[in-house]
Each structure stands twice: as structure tokens, then as C-alpha cells.
Amino acid sequence: MSKRAFNFCAGPAALPTAVLERAQAEMLDWQGKGLSVMEMSHRSDEYVAIAERAEQDLRDLLAIPSNYKVLFLQGGASQQFAEIPLNLLPEDGVADYIDTGIWSKKAIEEAQRFGNVNVAASAKAYDYFAIPGQNDWQLSKKAAYLHYASNETIGGLQFDWVPDVGETPLVVDMSSDILSRPIDVSQYGLIYAGAQKNIGPSGLVVAIVREDLLGRARSSCPTMLNYKVAADNGSMYNTPATYSWYLSGLVFEWLKEQGGVEAIAKVNRTKKDLLYKAIDASDFYSNPITHNARSWMNVPFRLADDKLDKPFLAGAEARGLLNLKGHRSVGGMRASIYNAVGLDAVEALVAYMAEFEKEHA
Amino acid sequence: MSKRAFNFCAGPAALPTAVLERAQAEMLDWQGKGLSVMEMSHRSDEYVAIAERAEQDLRDLLAIPSNYKVLFLQGGASQQFAEIPLNLLPEDGVADYIDTGIWSKKAIEEAQRFGNVNVAASAKAYDYFAIPGQNDWQLSKKAAYLHYASNETIGGLQFDWVPDVGETPLVVDMSSDILSRPIDVSQYGLIYAGAQKNIGPSGLVVAIVREDLLGRARSSCPTMLNYKVAADNGSMYNTPATYSWYLSGLVFEWLKEQGGVEAIAKVNRTKKDLLYKAIDASDFYSNPITHNARSWMNVPFRLADDKLDKPFLAGAEARGLLNLKGHRSVGGMRASIYNAVGLDAVEALVAYMAEFEKEHA
């Protein structure tokens, strides 16, 4: 038996042990066929069945309506930052963007290279500790879409509401909170997510696109970046990232076995409540985010004295609590507690935090 | 022990059993760290060491000069078909392309969307059974680059020579023959290869770029498609396909253990000689490609009567000889005999072919 650590990495992040065990068992010989999934033609009956099963499980988990296509793409969310305007923003149009932190700013900067961007609201006014309410947004009269990031992985800032912008399609970067709690897909025009947090290995991006938004790509859009081309070819215009797609399918199966998104949301709520409670109950630890915008998935926190950061991290690692160091732009600590990070991991972290505080406060 | 079949798939293709065994052993717990490689931050010391080791091993295997960058990208060769003109073809420039089959034609069609393309030569004149000699090429006076595919995976047509176009940078799609035999990297401006034949799993592309070709991208080039951005960030502008990169590194290590590219080239020569000899010695099997353009990696062949295709494939599968069906555009059979397909696999195939011929001729 391997000893598995508690892994709080922001991404690539922990995967369910059961998923890795199954991948391990099937590595050399998938279901007696004598070859690995990564050695299969993407056009083979066996692989197509794996790919379709993964898509169907994701559709079941999120209750994706039939007028949405599910795409399995590559290049990470960063490539989507260009694909979105190339597919959805007419050259003479304007797109609204909400700035809530580092990732939404990156999306804004890339979109500005391709057209008119209106930053309708920015959390900068609140030092990125709160999300501006919709009453304060300066929306365009006729935006091609509104883009926002539902969860900022670095800042630890998450929307607990869905913007209401009428007929304007909502485009949302859900990289770090997709599948963590229920959503109503029909509220969105385009949902996209890099896989490496709640879905699977890095190198895969899942996009869920409302069909009426397909076919609007600019003539200058590279074929591989055109959503309609991907949709028309079942994400197999060329060879997709077959093994990552398969692993994502195993994660979807695992999530169904856990009871689906509603069940995992309950666990996620318990986890984040436990951790924020521990932070708030102490003068030794702190998290600056306003309560209704605190992320369920990424919990940054500081120690009262940052000279204690190093011993805190060393002690954590000695206990098998890995990757708690905060992003360099924020400092301090960050615990990413995605679906595959169990309640036992958060309990171990909270116990260690109490112990460390007792010793050093 | 798993029973491993002989897998002649054109791609995603067979991987060395030893590589899969190592990946299997390390799946849940890499070197006692308590987590899988696919759960590691790409910025962690452990993962950076894995990534750098893979790059160095590839540099050793191909003796890549220090003025070349090695990039680990995504999107397959098809995304490169757009990236190449976006990075290397000025809007008022012209690029020369050689058409030798389906893949080089796809590269041409995509490039035409971004600028002036001169198809300097086409194998169409020979029904794609031979490669036009360089004396017959109609080169542009001042091409930004010359593009060709060193091996056509579907047609089974391979250059056994390197074009000499003076100062014009050579851009080559080596997806299906990289690492199969020695090359002189310094003859090229840009070498690129989808990983899923001789490198690793699909979803990864390796590009080897001469440094003076960096920094020429058009302003309309998406950031993620800009070679200079990838080079300046060690292929980590955003999260790369970490697990595929790691697996590719295991393949590079394995290839070094086999004695490197020169040693594997000897095996590859023996394999292809054995298979073509079996085809040529018989009136029952045929391959139409002119001898000096026959691919070492992809060997298409036909049976005298295509009514026998089905029984041939069924008999092959019963013997654990998988994925011999030819591409739908060519018909017949195709045996892809990449590095990871051993001499024993080709011997088993040739034995089966003789047996089948005896029964059905």
C-alpha cells in the first residue's frame, strides 16, 4: 500500500485515490484488451465508448440541457482567454468583463488584444477582498457577452450568486469550482474549466457551450480554436488528449458514486465551514475576504507573524500536509480543498493549526 | 502479469511496456512523496526536476544544439498548422509548402487562411506514391520558411533526404518519425511533433525552435500560441500537460536505455526491411510506394482481393495483432511500427501474413 499524503495543492491538484487505483490497475491492459487506454486509437470503438461515457456522466452530474455541447479541449483556461473573443466577440462589438483578481485580469488582458473590452466592475475598489454588487456594474448597452470568474484560485474570492444580465450570454471561468456545488447550466452561454482542479489531469479543458453561440467565430480564428469545429467533430477534429479525457471520466464516475454534485457540496460546505471557523476563532490566523465572497475551494490565510511561515510549512510537511504555501503574489498560506480533498484532510489541517498556534502564539 | 498485445496503431500508438510499468508503479506515490505526478504543482521542485530531466534527455537523444529551444506544447500538430504562420509568416510574406499527402495538405490549407502559400511541389503528380525531387520544386524567391512533413502517416511516404533550401528556414512536421533515426537538428529552423507516436500520450506537442525564429509572431497571435512566450516561460506560461510531459520523459529514458536513436534506428531498419520484403516477395500483398520513399514507420499494404480484408483482420486480432486496418482514405491494411513496436511484433505479423496467404491465395 502506498502512503498517500494530504495534498492541498491549488492545481494540478489532488485526485481521488480510488481513481488513481483504477487507472493503475488498467494501465497496461484495459479490460483484457492487451493495451493501455493511452495506446488506443481515438477512433476505436473502445475509446469512443470511454469518451462518450465520460461526456454522459458529466451531463448527468450537471444536468446539462440537450441544447449545450460539451467539448474536451486543450491549452488550459489561458488559451480560452483568446478563444472566447475569437469565437464570440465581433470585431466591432464589445464584451463586458468583471475583474475579481488575477485570473479574471488575465482574461481581460488577452481579450483586449482582440477587441473592445469594457471592465464593467472591479474588485480593486475593495482590495480584492469583496465582489462589487451588480448594482454597481457599468454594463455596456449591447455586450456580446459578460465574462467573469466564478472563483479566483489565488485570491480565494468566489461568487455566491449568478449575475443576471438578461439576454447577454454569461461566459464563466469555472476552472476552480466546477462540480463543487450545484449550478443551473441554463443560466450560462459558455462554461469553461481547466481540468486540473476538480476534473482530472492538466492539459485538458472542458467547455460547455450553448448551441446558438456556435458558428460565430472570426475568419481569423485558428481552426483548432473554433468551438464549432470542435462541436461538429465531437472534440475529435484531431487527436484529443485521450488519456486525460479517460481519467476525467473516472473522476466523473467517482463523483457519481459519492452521490453527485449535491452530495459533494454538503461535504465541501462542512470542510470550508470547519476551516474558516478555525481561522476566525483565532487571533493567530486570518483571512481577509468578506464572508459572502469566501471561496469554498481555495482558502488563503495568514499567520500573525510571517516569520512563522517557514516553521508552519515544515511542520505541516512533516505531518503529510502538503502544498500549503500561498501564491507568491499573496503570501501566507493557502489550503485548496477541492472535491478530492476529504474531510479527514481538513480535520488534520485544523488540528495541526491549533497545535501550532498553541506552541507559537 | 498483464497480457500485452502487438499494437500496430498509427496513433495514439504503442508505448514501451517498461514505461507503462514504471508509470503504474509510481501512479499513487511518486518516490515516496505521497502523491501522483499528476497531483503535483508544475512549479514544485519535484515536478520542475522531472520536466527538466525530460528536456535534457531529449536534447541528449537528438544532440540538440544550445541555440534551439525545446517546447512542450498542446493542441496537436493541427494547432501547429496555425501557429507556424502566426509565428513565422509576415502578413506580406510568402511561405513554401511541399504537398506529400493528407497531413501536409492540412498544413497547407490552414496556412492559406493566414497568408500567402506557395505549394512548391506536390506528390499528386505521382498519385502520392513518390516524392518529387528537389530539382522540380518551384521555390519562392524569398520564402519565410519551407514546410514539409518528413513522414506521411496515412500514405506511408517518407523523405529519406533533407531539403536544401539555403537560408530559408526548414519547418518540418516530424510527428510520426521523430526519434526513429538520427537527424541533424541544425539543418532545421523548427521541428515539431505530436507526441502520440514516438514520444508519449496524445495531447502533447514537442517543438524544437531555433532561437532566431522567436519573437516574430504577429500581433494577432493568441498568447498561448506564441512560441516566444512559451520559450521565455520554459513552457510554463500556464499549467502545461504535466503528466504527459512526465510520461514522455519516461519514454526518453527508455530510449536512452535502448542505446539511443542510432541503436533504435538499426532495429527500425530491420523491422521495415523484414516487412517490406514479405510484401514484395508475394503477389498476394502489395505496397505501391516507390522504394526510396517508403516509410520506416507506417507500412500500408493491400491484399490481392479486398474481400479478404475482413478475415485477415479477424485472424490478426485473434492472434493479438491489433489495429492493422488501413486509414479509410487509403483502404487495405497499415502496420505502424514505431519505436515501441518490437521486432517480435513484426516477426509475428510476417508469420501471420505468410500463413494467411497460404490459406487464401
UniProtKB/TrEMBL annotation, chains A, B:
Family matches, as Gene3D superfamilies: Aspartate Aminotransferase, domain 1, Type I PLP-dependent aspartate aminotransferase-like (Major domain)
GO cellular component, one term: cytoplasm
The record's free-text note on cofactor binding: Binds 1 pyridoxal phosphate per subunit.
Names of the cofactor(s): pyridoxal 5'-phosphate
Sorted UniProt keywords: Amino-acid biosynthesis, Aminotransferase, Cytoplasm, Pyridoxal phosphate, Pyridoxine biosynthesis, Serine biosynthesis, Transferase
Modified residues (N6-(pyridoxal phosphate)lysine): K197
Domain Aminotransferase class V: 6-349
Ligand binding (L-glutamate): R43
UniProt xrefs under InterPro entries: Aminotrans_V_dom, Pser_aminoTfrase, PyrdxlP-dep_Trfase, PyrdxlP-dep_Trfase_major, PyrdxlP-dep_Trfase_small
Main location: cytoplasm
EC number: 2.6.1.52
Reactions mediated catalytically: 4-(phosphooxy)-L-threonine + 2-oxoglutarate = (R)-3-hydroxy-2-oxo-4-phosphooxybutanoate + L-glutamate; O-phospho-L-serine + 2-oxoglutarate = 3-phosphooxypyruvate + L-glutamate
Enzyme class, UniProt record, top EC level: transferase
GO MF, one annotated term: pyridoxal phosphate binding
Binding-site residues for pyridoxal 5'-phosphate, renumbered to this chain: A77, S78, W103, T153, D173, Q196, N238, T239
SUPFAM superfamilies given in the database record: PLP-dependent transferases
Superkingdom as given in the UniProt entry: Bacteria
Pfam families on file: Aminotran_5
Biological function: Catalyzes the reversible conversion of 3-phosphohydroxypyruvate to phosphoserine and of 3-hydroxy-2-oxo-4-phosphonooxybutanoate to phosphohydroxythreonine.
Subunit structure: Homodimer.
UniProt-recorded name of the protein: Phosphoserine aminotransferase
Species per Swiss-Prot/TrEMBL record: Pseudomonas fluvialis
